[in-house]
Amino acid sequence: MMDRLNARMNGGQSAWTADQLATMRKIREAAMRDPYALNELRHLTDNIGPRLAGSPQAQQAVDWVAAEMRSLGATVTLEKAMVPHWVRGVETGELVAWPGQAAGTTQKVVLTALGGSVATPAEGLTAEVIVVPDFAALRALPADAAKGKILLFNHPFDKELAAVGNGGAAYGGAVVYRAAGPVAGTAAGAAAVLVRSAGGADYRLPHTGMTDYDPNMTKIPAAAVTAEDAEMLANLAAQGPVKMHLTLTPQTLPDAQSYNVIADWKGTEHPEQMVIVSGHLDSWDLGTGAIDDGAGIAVSMQAIHLLQSLGIRPRRTVRFVAWMCEEQGSQGAAAYVADYKDQIANHIGAIESDLGADHPTGISFEGKPELGRFLRPVAQVLDGIGAPIVESGGSGEDIAGLAEKGVPSFAPIQDSRFYFNYHHTAADTFDKVNPKHLNENAAVMAVLAYALADSPAPAPR
Question: What is the pLDDT at residue 202?
């Protein structure tokens, strides 16, 4: 018992010297004072704006981030990746017939096209709305009940689950309808599919995101409606026939060439070995991508800035990566794994931040259980900002390919209670970011990156 208590109090046997732990504390404190991440995020969101892959803004973001990293003295590479080029277009919905309708009136429905959606006819389509709560209810309908109709999946985001810190689980329960709803709708013969927005804020905010089509099936238009409008449609459809006029005019253009931005802060002893700090540079187009994932980009940039400003060169290279096109298929991440397939053994660790900018409570790791014990001294350093937890869990979508190949992978554990109120909506803007919390996330990123890059022996793998 006393051995376990001493390990908790003292961190156990440390992979780092007292001087290295002091350097970690120095990085932590500098991160909390440094306005760099906030300033970079403000420019990325307010000046450049939404960064849908293939767009002019995405290319401007690539060029700007590359220039910022060069100004710090990092070695910058632009890594090519072909990405989808989808353009949103017009998106409108209105009820044209429903029980209790006043003569000569219509009723607006607030919606947004799902990423990758095909278009309705230019003049739109008019059809009856049929509402189901889930896939099981759809399967239970009589044959052809949805044929030629607009099918709405009214499956709510579990706000109570999110409120106790399980925002990711709440999102997972709702987002499956966004991903698979159009295929299910096609199989049922529907003319179009609507899904209830996969988010927690009931401020009539539609929540976009990528949908998946089966290449062997007909593609039908797909959009997300607000929670309020989903409830209204469910209520009216229970009373009698409801007809909607739906217009979506997105276009899928030929794939575009884009880039991951790679910036290396070279190591002193093993520059060929690297630790990745990263976020994804692309965003959806309704807001300006502040929490998804401008914040992840900014705190990763700050990790390099802190090493530069403090004059720290770890044993190994710290590699910043701004991933391109996470939102529409992670093509940038796939390009990286393909291009560096022969150097996977030299990837000592990979960190990604992609859950916003709220308070971090520690580090989530993906890899051997020994990583938990290995990182205990780092956790003690991060206890100074309320981030002492180290636990096995997920890491990040863009580094998943590296994790699958055995690279120890990490992510900040972040407060997820409010993230999905804004995620993929028009409200994902700079004002949602708390400067103190952003700096806490930067501290986690920079301290962990230094620890992995400077440890005498690599992290367990």
Answer: 86
Residue-wise pLDDT tens digits, 237-279: 999 999 999 999 999 999 999 999 999 999 999 999 999 999 9
Positions of the chain with pLDDT lower than 50, given as ranges = 1-11
Residue 174 identity (one-letter amino acid): A
3-state DSSP percent of the chain in helix, strand and coil, to 5 = 40, 25, 35
* Cα 64 from Cα 374, distance rounded (Å): 37
**Domains of the chain in sequence order:** 11-86+254-454 (3.40.630.10), 89-249 (3.50.30.30)
Nearest to 86 by CA among 120, 117, 110, 41: 117
Burial (CB count <10 Å: 0-12, 13-18, 19+), residue 40? buried
Position 394 scores a pLDDT of 87
Question: Cβ of 87: how many Cβ atoms within 10 Å?
Answer: 13
The pLDDT score that the predictor gives to residue 7 is 44
What sign results for the dihedral spanned by CA atoms 201, 202, 208, 211? positive
CA-to-CA distance for 111 and 335, rounded, in angstroms?
Answer: 33
Rounded-to-integer distance, Cα 109 and Cα 122, Å: 18
Torsion of CA 127, 129, 134, 135, to 10 degrees: -30
The span from the CA of 251 to the CA of 53, in Å, is 14
DSSP string, 69-97: HHHTT-EEEEEEEEEEEEE---EEEEEEE
- Surface-to-core class of residue 238, CB atoms within 10 Å of its CB (0-12 exposed, 13-18 middle, 19+ buried): exposed
The residues that are catalytic are: 326
Tens digits of per-residue pLDDT, 61-92? 999 999 999 999 999 999 999 999 999 999 99
Q: How far apart are CA 459 and CA 141, in angstroms?
A: 54
C-alpha angle 316/277/34, rounded to 5°? Answer: 100
How high is the pLDDT of residue 260?
Answer: 98
Predicted confidence at residue 12, as pLDDT, reads 55
What's residue 11's pLDDT? 47
